[in-house]
Design brief:
The protein is 73% helix and 0% strand. It is mainly alpha-helical. Helix 1 packs antiparallel against helix 9 and helix 20 packs antiparallel against helix 23.
């Protein structure tokens, strides 16, 4: 066993121990398992939400896109800051409503706001479908990190199986508590590793950050700017907007909002998190530093840039530390995704069709669904070949379709109906699905449009369709939609007793 593998093994065991031990002293009912009894303070909520920034997407995808795409990678810096500004006003309202009505999942919020359990079912299904590529992203990253950092001693497949087994067990036992405690270790490590690598590698190989950019620009003129076509200015703006609006639409991120013990937690975090976002800049620096030092990484191999450069630079024990940090960036969000997906299916799909199901039975079903979802994600992980960032953007295109319904639900005079909300979501998701599955783009469908319009992110186009349909359908009086079968359901009590 080499030193790198030993270090990675120690941190895997530490994460597993903390995840299992997090249950200690708690009566693990559904509320404790999913939202920690709504008792997390600013630090834990900060770490859970920061966990959505520093995932394998950050560790590998950010540096990989800097390496392979250049200037367009800077969108990664921009969208989080906009999302946090939005959260200052939006999240306290969501938290207050959820606390008043004892909601436990994202779908609970939509179902209760629109008085429609079936809308909750729709939101659950969209959320789970969007979470699958996000979980696949984490698992692909986990396999790459452990295999590369162990110098090939462990195959990507074996690393993925070990990581999934550890996460599945502690999620089943401790729920969100396990995620929170492993997030503490993960954030300390990723902060230290990212900042160190982002400063040391440019200085070591180029003499500084500015000389690094000068060398990259000289070797590949224009690489650090946005191209005129494709990932152009309009692509950049539309992608930043899409990901900012969709940031809190991920079901596991939305659900972590409920775990706070007060609304002021989100206002504090909205001030601090944009500063924390700057750490991503150091990850991009690593990708730029690798361009001339480990050339010729093509396609999805660009995601290896950070690890290949680290292996060429540092002793095995420190490569193990880097690998361990990367391992945790997969395990923490992966655990939240597993728990949230299982809760959505058990509470917001199964219980809707079987309303007599008790809370305890829902909790047990959610626990049993965790390994099932893990296995489904493993199947797609071993079949897929997309890059890390491509997988993330695929999920964002889907999950952002929930934003219009959420936004309009926060109005004091709610004029959007449950039918409009549902129709808008279906229209947006259908647009994304058609364009993605057919392999077409806006330029293919409408070749006569200006280039700036052709380059718009597909998700933004789907969002525009979503918005138009939402408002148009909501303009019709509810009596036109009595055939939907929800005639007697508007006043269904969705509170948890």
């Amino acid at each position: 066993m080499n030193a790198a593998l030993a270090v990675i093994g120690v941190f895997l065991l530490l994460a597993f121990y903390l995840g299992v031990r997090a249950r200690q002293g708690k009566d693990m009912n559904l509320e404790q398992w999913t939202v920690a009894g709504r008792g997390f303070g600013a630090i834990f909520v900060f770490l859970l939400m920061a966990g959505e920034i520093y995932t394998t997407f950050t560790f590998l995808g950010g540096s990989g896109w800097a390496y392979g795409k250049g200037g367009p990678a800077f969108y990664i810096i921009a969208y989080g800051c906009l999302a946090y500004a939005l959260s200052y006003w939006m999240l306290p309202k969501v938290w207050k409503y959820a606390k008043e009505h004892r909601l436990m999942s994202q779908s609970d919020f939509f179902a209760h706001k629109y008085k429609s359990p079936m809308l909750g079912v729709l939101v659950s299904l969209v959320g789970v479908v969007a979470l699958i590529p996000y979980l696949v992203l984490q698992l692909k990253g986990l396999g790459i990190i452990v295999s590369e950092a162990s110098y090939g001693k462990i195959s990507p497949a074996a690393a993925i199986w070990l990581g999934v087994l550890a996460v599945t067990v502690y999620v089943m036992i401790s729920g969100i508590h396990g995620s929170a405690w492993t997030a503490v270790v993960k954030d300390i490590m990723i902060l230290a590793v990212a900042v160190f690598l982002g400063i040391y590698l440019p200085v070591h190989y180029y003499g500084g950050i500015r000389p690094m950019f000068e060398a990259v620009e000289k070797a590949n003129p224009g690489f650090l700017t946005l191209p005129d076509q494709g990932m152009s200015v309009s692509w950049f703006i539309s992608t930043v907007l899409l990901t900012a609006l969709g940031f809190y639409m991920w079901p596991h991120t939305f659900g972590s909002v409920y775990s706070a013990k007060g609304a002021n937690v989100f206002r504090k975090n909205a001030v601090l998190l944009p500063i924390y976002q700057l750490v991503l800049l150091f990850v991009l620096f690593v990708g730029f530093a690798a361009i001339l030092q480990v050339p010729d990484l093509q396609g999805s191999d660009a995601d290896l840039a950070l690890l290949r450069l680290s292996i060429a630079t540092f002793d095995p024990w420190f490569v193990g530390v880097i690998g361990a940090a990367g391992l945790l960036t997969a395990m923490v969000p992966g655990s939240m995704i597993l728990m949230t997906s299982a809760t959505l299916l058990a509470k917001n799909v199964y219980q809707v069709f079987s309303p007599s199901t008790t809370e305890e039975r829902v909790r047990k079903l959610a626990v049993y669904l965790v390994p099932v979802i893990a296995l489904v994600s493993l199947y797609f992980t071993f079949r897929g070949g997309e890059t890390i960032v491509a997988l993330l953007l695929m999920g964002y295109n889907l999950v952002t379709q929930l934003f219009p319904a959420l936004f309009f639900s926060l109005f004091k005079n709610q004029f959007v109906t449950k039918y409009g909300a549902a129709a808008g979501i279906v229209a947006g998701v259908a647009t994304v699905a058609y364009i993605t599955l057919s392999g077409t783009g806006i330029g293919t469908l409408f070749p006569g449009l200006p280039q700036a319009v052709k380059d718009l992110n597909v998700g933004i186009v789907a969002l525009a369709v979503n918005l138009v349909v939402t408002l148009a359908v909501s303009a019709f009086p509810p009596k036109f939609f009595r055939f939907t079968g929800e005639k007697n359901s508007p006043d269904v009590n969705l509170d948890v007793k």
